[in-house]
Design goal:
Helices cover 31% and strands 34% of the residues. It has a five-stranded antiparallel sheet with strand order 1-2-3-4-5. The two termini are 25 Å apart. The C terminus is likely disordered.
Length: 129
């Protein structure tokens, strides 16, 4: 198996439990790793044989912005589910969802959650970072 990465994808959205987060929104950063068998693509050099990362970006954008979630855990899961549903070559996806403007009275780089979802029956793992 092989891995395709999309790192540092910036998306403006309206997620959070505070009213101002849902009203004003903020930038989120997404690091995505998708596991797929790219053997055929490495031989054919054809876009049809790989995971089209431009199409994945559109899927991610739509899934991440169509609903205002309270929790980044749920927003991350929605993205993972959408990618697996729309991109059949992706066997597993891991999303590190960073919230650099979380409403905390502290100096910090970001808060984040990492979610992994897989096509394998019953294999959905959520871990916080």
């Amino acid at each position: 198996m092989d891995t395709i990465y999309i790192k540092g994808l910036e998306i403006f959205a309206y997620h959070g439990v505070n009213p101002e987060e849902k009203r004003d929104g903020q930038v989120f950063l997404l690091d995505i790793a998708m596991v797929a068998d790219l053997t055929k693509a490495r031989e054919s050099d054809s876009l049809d044989d790989t995971v089209n990362y431009a199409a994945v970006r559109k899927t991610v954008q739509k899934a991440f912005t169509e609903t205002k979630y309270n929790l980044i855990e749920r927003a991350a899961q929605a993205v993972c589910e959408a990618v697996l549903a729309e991109h059949e070559k992706v066997e597993e996806i891991t999303l590190l969802l960073k919230k650099p403007e979380a409403p905390m009275n502290a100096i910090f780089e970001y808060v984040a959650v990492e979610v992994t979802a897989s096509r394998k029956a019953g294999e959905k793992e959520k871990t916080g970072n």
